[in-house]
Known about the structure:
This protein has about 525 residues and is of the alpha/beta class. Helix content is about 45%, strand content about 15%.
Amino acid sequence: MTKTKYLTTPLYYVNAKPHIGHAYTNVIADTFARFYKFTGEKALLLTGTDEHGTKIEKIAREKNLNPKDFVDQMVPHFKSLWKLLDICYDDFIRTTEDRHKRIVAKVLTDLETKGDIYKATYEGWYCTPCESFWTELQLEEGKCPDCSRDVQRLSEDNYFFRLSKYQEWLIAYIHAHPEFICPEIRRNEILGFLKEQLEDLCISRPRARLGWGIDYPTSNEHVVYVWFDALINYISAIGYGEKPEYFTSLWPADIHFVGKDILRQHTVYWPIMLRALDLPLPKTVVAHGWWTMQGAKVSKSLGNIVEPTELVQKYGVDAFRYFLLKEVTLGYDGAFSEILFRERYTTDLANDLGNLWFRMASMMDKYFQGEMPALASASVLHPLYQNSLGLWDLVCEAMKQWDPRQALSAIFAVVKQANQFVEENKPWVLAKSPASRDELAQVLAVLAEAVAHVAVVLLPFLPDTAGKISERLGRQDAGASFDKASFTKPFLQTGIKLTRGEILFPKLEEEKPQSSPA
Ligand code: ME8
C-alpha cells in the first residue's frame, strides 16, 4: 500500500489576524497537496493554530477576555481566509484541543522516563515576544539576537530537554540526508548553527509567570513552553500513541512547509524530539523566504501588514495565488508592492491567459457555433499541441525541485506560444475564404487542445480559473487525477459545445495603488 503524503504548515499564532506571510505558506502547501492529489497520490494537508503563550495571554488580557475566549474569537479569521484562498486542508488542529494536550502530556512523560528531561535552575536573559531564553554570550548589544528587543534577567526552576545529547547525531543525520532541509542555503545555515555547542532546551514556564499554557504533567507549578507544545501538533493531529494504524499510514511527514524564521525549531529542536521518541524524521523541511514591504519583513509586530482579503476582493483569488507563486522562487525573499501585483495581473493573467481563452472561445463561437472541430491526425504533430503535452513532464519536474514558479513559467510559456500561434495563423483571415475552412478548423482545434492542456496543469495552482476553463470546455477536471498517459492524447471530443462565459481577468481600472515598491 502506498503511503499517504503528509504535508503540514506551521500553526499560526492567533494574536492577530493572518497576513500575506501566513497566506503564502498556506498557498504553497495547498498547491503541493493539490499537485500530489492531481497526480493520483493520496495526500493529507494539516494546518492549524498555535494558541498558548505569553503573547496571546497578554493580548487577551488587554482586551479583557480570558485567553480561551480570545483564541476562540480569532480562529475563525484563519479558517475564513483559508476558505477564501481555496486552501483545501484535510485537518485543522488547535493546540487548545484535548486531542493535542493529551499527546503533549504523553510525550513529556515518555521523555522524562527515558531520562531526556531534567529539572534545573535557569539563570539568564529572556525575550518575552520571542519566548526565548538567551545566555549573556548570545545577546547582541544586550538585546535579543532574534528580534533586537529588550530582554529581562530571570532566575527560575524549570524543566530542560537534553538537546545537547543528540547534537552529533543530528549533524551526521543532516549530512547523510541532504534532502532533509531545503533549500541548500538553509541546510548550510543550520549546519553552521550546529557548529556551536547546543544548549539544552528549557521546555517549561513557571505558572506564576505564565498561566496560559498546557499543564506540565508532573508539576503543578509549571506549564509547557509554547514551542515544545506546538511542534508536537504534527504527531498529535494524526493520533500518535492513540491511533496506531492511522498514525503509521501518515508518519513520517513528507513535507513540513515553514518560513525561514522558524527553521531552527523545525530542523534542530523537532528532529531531536523525534529522535528521543524513537520516531523517524520528516522527509523534508522546506523553508521559504519572507515577503517584505519597504525593505522590512511583513509582520504583525512591525504593523506593515498586507491584507490578503482586500487583495482577493479587488483582484480575485487566483490573481493572489498566482502572484505569490510566480513572483519569487521558493526559498527567496520577495518585495511586495501593489504596483507589481497589478503588473503581473495585467501582463500574465489578463493579457496572456484571459485573452487566450477569450479569443479562442469567441472564434469557436463565431466560426463553428461553439462546437469543437475534429482534430486531424496531422495536427497532433503541431509544435503547440506537442508543447502542451510536454507540460506534464515540465510541471512534474519543477514540483520535484520545489519550484512552483518554474512550473508556472513553463505553463505560461505555452500560453504565450498559443497567443503567437493565433497572430501567425490569423483565423479571421482564414474565415473569409471557404477554401480555408479545414485549415481554420485545425487552427482552432489545436488552439482549443492547447488551452485544455494548460487548464488541466493549472489546476493545482489556480484551481478556480482552471476549473472554470475546464467546465467551459465541457469537462469536469476539478478534483480528477491525471498521469503522463493523459498527456499523450487529445482532451476534447469532436462536437462538444464550448461556452465562452465571462471575461476571466477583467481589465483593471486605472488607480493609485496604496503601496509602492520597496
Ligand atoms: O511562528 N513572509 O507562528 P507565526 C513569509 N506559532 N512568511 C511569513 C511572513 C512573511 N513576512 N510572516 C509570517 C509561529 N510568515 C509559530 C509556529 S509551528 C509548530 C509554530 C509565515 O504566526 C511563515 O510560514 O509567527 C512563518 O514561518 C510563519 O508564518 C510564522 O507564523
